[in-house]
Amino acid sequence: MESRLPKPKFSAKKTTSSISIAxxxxxxxxxxxxxxxxxxxxxxxxxxxxxxxKENKPPxxxxxxxxxxxxxxxxxxxxxAVTKTAVKRPGPVTxxxxxxxxxxxxxxxxxxxxTTVSSKKTVSGKSLKPTTAPPKxxxxxxxxxxxxxxxxxxxxxxxxxxxxxxxxxxxxxxxQSIIDGYKNNEIKNNEKINELINKNDKLSGELTExxxxxxxxxxxxxxxxxxxxxxxxTHIKTTEFVKELQNRITDLQNLCHEMDKDxxxxxxxxxxxxxxxRVFCRVRPRIEKEMSKNVCAINYVDESTLEISRADxxxxxxxxxxxxxxxxxxxxxKVFPPTATQADIFEELSLLVQSALxxxxxxxxAYGQTGSGKTYTMEGCDDPELEGMIPRTVRHIFVxxxxxxxxxxxxxxxxxxxEIYNEHIVDLLDSQQKIHEIRMVDSRGTDLYVTNLxxxxxxxxxxLHSCLRMAQQNRAVAATKSNERxxxxxxxxxxxxxxxxxxKGETSIGNLNLVxxxxxxxxxxxxAARTAETKNINKSLANxxxxxxxxxxxxxxxxxxxxxxxxxxxxxxxxxxxxxxxLNVSPLDxxxxxxxxxxxxxxxxxxxxxxxxxxxxxxxxxxxx
Length: 625
Prior knowledge:
Elements: H1 12-27, H2 37-42, H3 70-85, E1 122-123, E2 126-127, H4 147-274, E3 277-283, E4 297-302, E5 305-309, E6 328-331, E7 334-336, H5 342-357, E8 362-368, H6 374-378, H7 389-405, E9 409-421, E10 424-427, E11 438-440, E12 448-450, E13 456-458, H8 461-474, E14 477-478, E15 486-487, E16 490-501, E17 506-516, H9 531-552, H10 564-568, H11 570-573, E18 578-585, H12 592-606, E19 617-619
Parallel strand pairs: 3-7, 3-18, 8-17, 8-18
Antiparallel strand pairs: 1-2, 4-5, 5-6, 9-10, 9-13, 9-16, 11-12, 14-15, 16-17, 17-19
Helix pairs in contact: 5-7, 7-8
């Protein structure tokens, strides 16, 4: 029985094919491929991740055949009629769009962070490993009508894609943090670059200045080199000239040394012509408290002669009771009136100091009665203009030493201060009491020394002045009728001058004795308490006169050992010496008799002519030869 429905315009066979196509299109869900960071880095923006190249096609359908019955044939005809007119409604089609790969540029390699973005490096403690999807099971054959299985497969694929998207998001955040770190580093690096640019500018400026300086120095170097060459030429000429000058200097030094020898000989000859023992007489002026007293009538005939008489002009009586002439005349080597200064006296004494520097023994002693001005003449006062013979001698020695140094001489000065009190030697520089004896230096007996005597080496005048002041404080003095502070002992300042000429291998030793004798006086009733003291003073002065008279008569035996004073002064009173007596007299009429005694004693000394003296000269080994 045929169906009443109109026949469809298309055949069932074609419909079946269209439905199968639609079904296949629904079942063709793209499978996500595993995405890696390397693949993401290579993808471009707007480009899909991947395209499905393969589709899961169901197996071809097969037609199953049954045994046909009448009912089945009728049903088949009915269904076929319906099929011809109805179109099967396709199921929902889901077009799975593959997610696009993010445009991620690979991280640059920097030295600051030392980070390289790769598939095997870590960023922020997380590894950037490629996200690999779990292995996909092999597609199973699904019937095209099994929508549930197809849905489950699509859900699994969607879940996989979401997980992949989540991982990509995390990777994106990590990469963003890396980018932010790079930006911060870029800012810091830009700041450092700016600093380095500024430093570079400064260094460039300094380099420019240094180049200018180098150019200037180069120019100066060229000029200096030329000057050096000229100087070298000049130096060669100068060296030759210096050698000539050195030869001339050597010749002149030899000539000066020979001339100095001749000068010393001439100087000694002049001193011998003046007398190896000389006597200067000095008349002191009155002091303020003596202005009311009468003075003797003293007439200065010339520079070396004076006449003296009493103030009233009466004649004096001798020891035999005979009357003497009113005026008595005395001659000396030099006479200094009351107006003479300390400098005038030292001008004559300086010639003898010069002899001591040249190696001769010199003795200068002040003689006179108490209160005649002996200590003032020898020591003076603190005022430089009133300095005595001892301070002036010291200054003169150091001045002459500098002149002798130009001739090649070097000097060493040794000084000691002692006094002879009651025939005992006392060291004025040592506060401890010791026993001092006079002994010979050698068997020849040409020089003496005192045992246990403190000897100071002098380097400048101030040191010697301090020793002199100490000696003045320790010296024995007492008040007498003639003087409130009378010297009761013989004070001796011993200065030893040792000169050495290394170039010529010579040495000279000169001894300078500066003696301030105790005052000669007669005993008075109120001074009887010092009888022994006065006797010893007068005895030593008398022995000094006996020694001088023995020298005058050229006796074989000279009584040097009769007193400590003459024994100590033996080298300065004998033949190898130059002696100067400074006679000090008072102008007062009350002291007329003592003045006459002093003048007579000094006149006898002046008449004593000593023999030719010899210079103490020693040859030493010249180490420079």
